[in-house]
Amino acid sequence: MGYGASSVNPSSLSGFIEPRIRRRRPLHFSAQPTQRCGCRSSDSTVMYSSRHYSFRPFDFQRTYLRRQRTPKWRCRSSLKFSSLELPLLPFNSNEVLVPSESKTLHLYEARYLALLEEALVQKKMFVHFVLDPISISDSGGEASFAARYGCLVNIESVERLDVGALVSVRGIGRVKLAGFLQSEPYLRGEVKPVQDIGVDSANEISSKVTQVKEALGNLNSLEIKLKPRKDELLQTRLANALWWAEKELELDCDEAFVPSLAERISFAALQPISGSSQSELYNLQQEKLRAMDMRDTLKRLDGSLKLISQNISMVAAKLAIQSLGMS
Length: 327
Prior knowledge:
Blueprint (H helix, E strand, L loop, with lengths): L27 E4 L7 E3 L18 H9 L3 H10 L2 E8 L10 E6 L2 H12 L3 E10 L8 E18 L4 E18 L5 E6 L8 H22 L13 H10 L14 H8 L9 H16 L3 H30 L1
Parallel strand pairs: 3-5
Antiparallel strand pairs: 1-6, 2-4, 3-8, 4-7, 5-6, 6-7, 7-8
Helix pairs in contact: 4-8, 5-6, 6-8
């Protein structure tokens, strides 16, 4: 399914200020009518314009407790002063990417292929972010957007095609856009890490993580029994996301950009289920938005357990209908 594209008006840039902080105004974009885009995802057509942009077996206790022993002030200092300068790739509000989630993009326009080349040469990373529609009273009737829901992504594989390339990426951790550095031929900016605040009881976190992992295993066991539609491959995104969340990560960046194990697992449940309807995918997007805004690992784990429980009921009902149709 395709999504709309919006080109950015060069006169709309008034300077960047961190989004999602109430005391400050987010970066606004004035948008023009839809244009053909130069990048597609595996699920939909990505939303940005063809015109140039105008602005610049796992040992949980050992791993988690090692993170916990780091003094709070040291963590805060690392988060405050760490930053990366990376290429930026914007998407529409229906294309939020969360940590642990994978996505395949078809890049075929020259500027996006140039973005890919820079990302591969440097750290195999770029930033996936959302242009979120907002209402501005003095915008003169034009659509406006705010830059939000940034996610640092790692390039896992690249398949060269006759036209462009298929790029598999993985969400690593949340980031906020601190400023734009260039607009031509593609966006490039400075980003800072965003992680959950506070340290809960290690035992409580450990218990919740175990529950989420067990629940994800149960859901995945049911999901693989679903008979896929003729035009749909059987997805195993839950198992894939959990596998990634549990493994020891080796990334070429400051560890402040890498979420804790518990935080990574709290995002792993936010994956689409095979055969999901449009309404179910919409509900999942809303859950993703809430999870990206949340700064409490324990609350997100609780939310994941609730979502998994709902999905288990949904898949069980679909399996019952499937068995009736096959009998």
